[in-house]
């Protein structure tokens, strides 16, 4: 049995993580934490998630159950990621991170922490998107020199970062394959007289609307044909189950920064 502590338990992802932990007979959910002062503290984790009672109270930190935790799962917000990493380093806990929109300083903290604890960090924990990262590389290898490359993504109205971490991961995989620097060639939206499209650019388009769980398309368009590789998530449970799988895989691994592609052996 793997003991799991969830950070951000009251979030959209946190609630389905509680459900995914409950559905997995190899998982023992031992802590579910929210922000200090949150209205959910003291509530049963199962009731918060809308499933059966779990006999586990929501807490303001992972502290009460530190010794029972084998791995932490963090789907919170970028501004608390460094404090969460510091806790895992101090307590020698493996951590699976799903939080996206990290800035360069937060990414550096993640890399530093990975020198002393094992970490899985992925912008997307679904099997399909991780397979898509391989497929877009294949397409870029064959069509990247001639086709125009655009990445389209859509998410629900509550999402705070844009483009999505997954769209950026798709862009980085393609840029790496065609030998371009994404920082130099990315175009985030267009307006007014933009002139003709520059071939070497990789364009991003973002939609925010309603309750869209997450959709990503990589478009390789030439004169006369175009290839579209699309993934559509219809339930957050797919990300949560992937994160739980990653947590089980991570326990006992040496310190280091791992990806979901490592977990799924897609490398
Ligand atoms: P959300 O805003 O619903 O949930 C985040 C929760 O974290 C909030 O409830 C907030 O109160 C809580 N939180 C903040 N600070 C905390 C702290 N110090 N301790 C405990 N809890 C704290 O957002 P969401 O839709 O659940 O998404 C969370 C993150 O996960 C976002 O960055 C999102 O982009 C990302 N995400 C990643 C994947 C993936 O597969 N990697 C999938 C979906 C969402």
Strand content: 15-25%
Radius of gyration over all CA atoms, rounded: 19 Å
Number of strands: 11
Helix content estimate: 25-40%
Summarize the main sheet: 6 strands, parallel
Structural class: alpha/beta
The CATH topology name of the largest domain reads: Rossmann fold
Bound molecule types? nicotinamide-adenine-dinucleotide
CATH superfamily of the largest domain: NAD(P)-binding Rossmann-like Domain
Q: According to CATH, what is the class of the largest domain?
A: Alpha Beta
Number of helices: 9
From the 3D coordinates, which CATH architecture of the largest domain would you assign? Answer: 3-Layer(aba) Sandwich
Principal-axes geometry comes out as: elongated
| Terminal Cα span | 27 Å
Strand order of the largest sheet: 2-1-3-4-5-11
């Amino acid at each position: 049995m793997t003991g799991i502590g969830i950070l951000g338990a009251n979030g959209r992802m946190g609630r389905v993580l509680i459900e995914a932990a409950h559905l997995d007979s190899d998982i023992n959910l031992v802590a579910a934490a929210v922000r200090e002062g949150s209205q959910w503290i003291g509530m049963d984790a199962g009731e918060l998630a809308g499933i059966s009672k779990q006999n586990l109270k929501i807490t303001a930190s992972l502290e009460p159950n530190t010794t029972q935790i084998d791995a932490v799962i963090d789907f919170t917000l970028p501004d608390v990621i460094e404090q969460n990493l510091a806790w895992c380093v101090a307590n020698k806990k493996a951590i699976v991170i799903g939080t996206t929109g990290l800035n360069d300083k937060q990414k550096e903290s993640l890399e530093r922490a990975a020198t002393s604890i094992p970490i899985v960090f992925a912008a997307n924990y679904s099997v399909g998107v991780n397979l898509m990262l391989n497929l877009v590389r294949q397409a870029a290898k064959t069509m990247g020199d001639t086709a125009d490359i655009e990445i389209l993504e859509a998410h629900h109205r509550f999402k705070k970062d844009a483009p999505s971490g997954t769209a950026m991961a798709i862009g980085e995989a393609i840029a790496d394959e065609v030998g371009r620097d994404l920082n130099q060639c990315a175009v985030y939206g267009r307006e007014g007289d933009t002139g003709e499209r520059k071939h070497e650019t990789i364009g991003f388009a973002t939609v925010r609307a309603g309750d869209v769980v997450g959709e990503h398309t990589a478009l390789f368009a030439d004169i006369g044909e175009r290839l579209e590789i699309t993934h559509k998530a219809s339930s957050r449970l797919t990300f949560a189950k992937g994160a739980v799988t990653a947590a089980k895989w991570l326990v006992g691994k040496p310190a280091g920064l791992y990806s979901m592609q490592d977990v799924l052996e897609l490398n």
